[in-house]
Specification:
alpha/beta; Rossmann fold; Alpha-Beta Plaits; 9-stranded mixed β-sheet; two-stranded antiparallel sheet; 35% helix; 30% strand; binds iron/sulfur cluster
Length: 285
Amino acid sequence: MIVSVASGKGGTGKTTIAVNLALTLVETESVCLMDCDVEEPNAHLFLKPVLEGSAKVTVPVPIVNEEKCNGCGRCGEICAFNAILPLGKHVLTFPELCHGCGGCTLLCPVGAIREEPLEIGLVEWGHAGSISHIHGKLRIGSPLAPPVVKAVKCHKQNMPEGAISIIDAPPGTSCPVVASVSGSDFCLLVTEPTPFGLHDLTLAVDMVRELQVPFGVVINRAGLGNGGLVDYCNAENIHILAEIPFERRYAACYAKGGRLVEEFPEVKKVFQDLWHAICVTADRV
Ligand code: SF4
Ligand code: SF4
């Protein structure tokens, strides 16, 4: 089963939920935590895994041989990202914009384009106790997060068969989030009971509905306020699967990189119940 953990905005405690769910499940299940928040992976700060390997993530970018180019302009016409710009027989390329789709190379009628790998990030893997851990790191300055997210998800093939996969998605609702959540069996949307949390939750709900991924909501810092969150979920027939109370001692634990389920038995119970609720809700849809 693949469970993604997403949120419409940053700072809601998404990683806290992903990490503590993994720590709860690993007592009885084989678990793999994939940190797909490749611009800012931080699950490792809580899990403290021993890393065992890494692999570069590259995309193939075009290199043009201007001696062969006939100036037809087709490469510029096909590129949806303005990453290649033919100016007569002089062709400019912008590797940082290239998505590595290979369209220009395929279409060039005279074979003037070859491809070279451009490194855009890194995937690292290892173990934190019995939890398999994989995370991606986008190279600073690279705008292409989705290929790194996909590389993290692909690496799962090397993880234990039948493991429950928990994906810590990036915040927001943009392409890297879609790449992270796509293909999940269930998505947890983490939010907080504030007007900002509600606003961004509505965007995240639209996204998972569009992706047709079954989902439920986890309210972090419950009791902080309401902001209409519960009313919205009721009106939209959205299941609230768990609530983590707003407690100073939980925040202090988080701030020092601690693990809630190991320090607070009542929180562990919340996560055990959350897993049960995920299984029940996923079965219903
Ligand atoms: S590989 Fe695709 S994205 Fe990159 S320049 Fe060619 S057409 Fe554009
Ligand atoms: S498609 Fe090939 S031949 Fe045509 S402009 Fe681009 S590089 Fe030159």
